[in-house]
Amino acid sequence: MAFTHGVYVEEVPTPITAVREVDSALPFVVGVAPVHNLPEGRERPVNQARLIADFTEFVETFGGLASGEDPANFGLYDFARVYFTLYGMSPAVFVNVFDPETHYSTVSGESVTFGADDQAHLAHRAVSNVVVKSQDGATTYTAGTDYTLEAASGTLTRLSGGAIPAGATVQVDYQYADPTKVTSAEVIGGVDAATDTRTGLELVEEVFPRFGKIVGLILAPGFSQDPTVANVLIAKAELINQHFKAMAYIDVPATVETPTEAVAFKQNFGSPHAVFFWPRVMEGNRPVWLSLHAAGLTAKVDWGNDGVPYESPSNKELRVTGPEKVLLLQEANYLNEQGVVTVHRMMTGWKLWGNRTAAFPENTDLKDAFIACRRMANWIENNLVVNTWQKVDLPINRRVVQGVADTANIWLNGLTGRGYLLGARVEFLERDNPVTQLANGKVVFRVYYLAPPPAETITFLLEVDLQYFEEFFERR
Hints:
Layout: E1 27-31, E2 49-52, H1 55-62, H2 75-86, E3 92-96, E4 104-113, E5 119-121, E6 127-134, E7 147-150, E8 155-158, E9 169-177, H3 184-188, E10 190-192, E11 197-199, H4 207-211, E12 217-219, H5 227-238, E13 247-251, H6 259-266, E14 274-277, E15 281-283, E16 286-288, H7 290-304, E17 322-323, H8 329-337, E18 340-344, E19 351-353, H9 366-369, H10 371-388, H11 398-417, E20 423-427, H12 435-439, E21 446-450, H13 471-474
Parallel strand pairs: 1-3, 1-12, 12-13, 13-14, 14-18
Antiparallel strand pairs: 2-3, 4-9, 5-8, 6-9, 7-8, 10-11, 15-16, 15-17, 18-19, 20-21
Helix pairs in contact: 1-2, 2-7, 6-8
């Protein structure tokens, strides 16, 4: 050690670590995107998690809809439109499982006629393996000599000097990209043991390692109504990366026609990490899955509270023209009573209506029964993981233990001071930390907290007070 003489000051690291708050409602959405409409030569992302900031970026990455295409076949496009444009939220993570190379249908002998512009238009876009024959089928024409093909739009152009007569009618065999061929099993996905490659919902495990973001909501629009998909959505929401928790937003099937049937479907599930929605909502004359709008509204409410998910999205206005089926208040409340979220209008504007997770009514524990309380618990847990991770593997001594507790307590006190919690504290208790456990490198902190439940029921007790008659005489 160098010789010193005098007074010296050395800085040591602050035991209280700066807190980074994690995303509360970041959606992870798996389904079908119109990648077949991307320009030729553009990459078509299939089974790749992509973090998207806005609707323009979504269309550039996953494609837009062509005229005449049914948006109901492209759940990712519908979600992006609702989330980014109707609710103005950002970002979201998307996984497209639609591959035009493998999801296709075959057309034989489609009859088309070349117009005055020497063009003929097939009934479908994103075509491949095109064979053009004369109307009687006797002659097979040659691409590049007799005609050209724009595969993306399904447009044939007759070449002058070729064998196809002007104004001719021809027969065409071809394959076209068909999003309806995507199966629930492909949305669920899996892990290839040989290559360690993930697909479908399994890609939720890659969001944090790739983007440093924690998923808050998991959806599969157009597929979540399948019980098999719903169960996997729930399983993923309950534990991501062995550390994080989220919520699965699940739709009741569109074929369900009554509240009783909706409840019967929901009763197959009971996880506090699941929320069920029924019925679909209308945008003009088109039905859209309610879960899409619920995700956008959830994120919007969180955004209004500095990203803290303590407030319920219930009784907040949806960007819809109404529900597919208008419910009486008693029907809406029956759904709520059985753990199904719905849509209701009391005076003006259609509102999301319901506070309960799928665990209710069997599970009445505050943190599991209310959506807002469950999401708040998820968010607190996720934050604690992220903000104390740097303490892992430090020596177990008083300074480190106190630093962990102080960091968490300061953060929780801040949430309490802003009204997001009614109270919270972190304690390091002897009963939770026996010597044998400490000697094995394991430390336990006990977190006490109370998130405010929603004021689901407000009651006025109206009573006649006859003493007000006495005021007649007191004022004379």
